[in-house]
Amino acid sequence: MDIILEGIRQAFILLVTFDSEVLGITWFSLKVSGTATLISLLIGMSIGTVVALTQFPGRRFVVSLINTGMALPPVVVGLFVTIFLWRNGPLGFLEILYTPTAMILAQAVIATPIVMGISLASMQQLPKKLRLQILALGATRLQMVRILIREARLPLLAAVMAGFGGVISEVGASIMVGGNIKGYTRVLTTATVMETSRGNFDIAIALGIILLFFAYLINLVLTTVQQRERPR
Q1: Which of 29, 73, 78, 120 would give a disulfide with 48, using CB separation of 3.0 to 4.6 Å?
Q2: Nearest-angstrom CA–CA distance, 108 and 38
């Protein structure tokens, strides 16, 4: 219990004193995970919407793959991204392994299936007759898609929160492709693992609390927007 209390005290001290290293790690964590989430939104929502609104052979198989991808282990993603980015790998010529770019790539791979799966389910829940009504009013297919996305905006916000939550809290892929290099690729999760391995439980708890605080803060903002737009 004393260790936990000391961790809370350390977290408070690190925050109120604006510790430069902790602030740097926190900002870098938010930047990497935020960028990866944005990439996953562009790819995941687009593919999820297309699959939801299109009938084609093998569609059920594709949907099952998307749903399976939502549970993709981060360490497996880290393994394959590392292999691809290794100097002898297919993308080794890019020379981005152990860089922030590699971390963003790995986290985007983790978040995309999550966003895709929730987007697919959100669009499928809309009444099928709604599409016909929109088209009957003279809208183009592109306009129809925009209207449907707007109608499904509340569950789609849940996709944003789930995607961000999935990457801000992961550690395996970040260590494997980023290397946990101080001042360059170290994020809150990898720093917490490192301090725990060193036996610095107070600092590890402090970093964990800071991670939870910022994750909660961002999700609070998104939840506020979601609940404010909830139909009454």
Answers
A1: 120
A2: 8
